[in-house]
């Protein structure tokens, strides 16, 4: 059993225990009339709650196709937990109603299964589920942000190592039978216009309508040139330069000119040197950036 499964079991155990504790305190469903039998009923309700959580986890993983994964981000985890509650709450209410009907009718006659009993049980479980959900939402967000900050710190440290002066230039191919990559490159688009840049001085490229904005250094100054082209064309032209990566659908960034990777409230940005622009990083492109930093 891996850590993810252990954590899931722990979360469901704690949540179910909280629900049963609340039921034990307020004693709905005629539990106050059961005396010592009430403890046995509470234990059975606890088992039913865990069983319902297990069924809901199976539904989420194999039917809704939402496995638990922190790698997909905090918004995914929160969305998954919301779906868990929407499925699990009516399921738990149904199990409790059936248990009330078959096992607790002797305590209180009103425990007979009916629509009104189900709605009453659903209201109680929904309230408890909402309270539990708020707790775990806060817990998950804090945990994920702590993980994200630690990972960002390590990425920044690795990035600084890659940005030693000799590594600003594109990596030369080590194989003797291959030519080194060009340090000066002419970028062309869909017209006869072109822009010649030093690859090591490229800051970023941004998609602007039917054009791309090329931000780079020339003579120690930040310069921007517009070129009628697509981001796909630029990405294809620069594909041999490992430190130039797609960070967003609208941006290509030179990691050799990134001052800092900033992580804040679940979003990540690249702070570019000299121009001090902050480029957004989409979650789908984050893995590519990590690979480029670690392998670049």
Can you tag this structure with a few keywords?
three-stranded antiparallel sheet; 50% helix; 296 residues; alpha+beta
Report on the structure:
- With 296 residues, the chain is an alpha+beta fold.
- The chain is built from six helices and ten strands; from the N terminus they run H-H-H-H-E-E-E-E-E-H-E-E-E-E-E-H.
- The chain has helices at residues 3-26, 37-63, 74-103, 115-162, 231-237, 283-295, and strands at 184-188, 194-198, 202-208, 211-218, 221-228, 244-248, 251-254, 258-264, 267-272, 278-281.
- The strands form three sheets. It has a five-stranded antiparallel sheet. A three-stranded antiparallel sheet has the order 8-9-10. Strands 1-2 form a two-stranded antiparallel ribbon.
- A hairpin with a 5-residue loop joins strand 1 and strand 2.
- Helix 2 packs across helix 3 (74-103) and helix 3 packs antiparallel against helix 4.
- The radius of gyration is 29 Å and the shape is elongated.
- The model is unreliable at 166-179 (pLDDT under 50).
């Amino acid at each position: 059993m891996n850590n993810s499964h252990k954590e899931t079991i722990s979360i469901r155990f704690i949540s179910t225990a909280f629900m049963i504790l609340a039921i034990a305190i307020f004693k709905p469903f005629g539990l106050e009339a059961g005396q010592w039998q009430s403890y046995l009923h509470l234990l059975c309700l606890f088992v039913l709650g865990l069983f319902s959580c297990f069924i809901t986890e199976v539904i989420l993983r194999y039917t809704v196709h939402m496995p638990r994964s922190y790698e997909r981000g905090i918004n995914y985890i929160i969305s998954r937990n919301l779906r868990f509650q929407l499925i699990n709450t009516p399921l738990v209410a149904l199990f409790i109603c059936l248990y009330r009907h078959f096992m607790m009718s002797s305590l209180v006659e009103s425990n007979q299964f009916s629509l009104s009993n189900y709605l009453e049980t659903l209201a109680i479980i929904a309230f408890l589920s909402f309270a539990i959900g708020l707790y775990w939402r806060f817990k998950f967000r804090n945990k994920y942000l702590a993980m994200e900050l630690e990972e960002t710190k390590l990425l920044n440290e690795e990035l600084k190592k890659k940005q030693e002066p000799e590594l600003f230039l594109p990596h030369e191919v080590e194989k003797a039978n291959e030519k080194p990559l060009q340090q000066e490159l002419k970028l062309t688009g869909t017209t006869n216009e072109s822009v010649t840049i030093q690859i090591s001085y490229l800051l970023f490229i941004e998609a602007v309508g039917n054009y791309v904005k090329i931000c780079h250094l020339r003579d120690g100054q930040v310069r921007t040139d517009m070129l009628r082209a697509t981001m796909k064309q630029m990405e294809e032209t620069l594909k041999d330069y490992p430190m130039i990566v797609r960070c967003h659908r609208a941006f290509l960034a030179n990691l050799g000119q990134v001052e800092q990777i900033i992580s804040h409230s679940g979003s990540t940005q690249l702070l570019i040197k000299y121009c001090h622009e902050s480029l957004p990083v989409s979650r789908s492109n984050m893995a590519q950036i990590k690979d480029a930093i670690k392998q670049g």
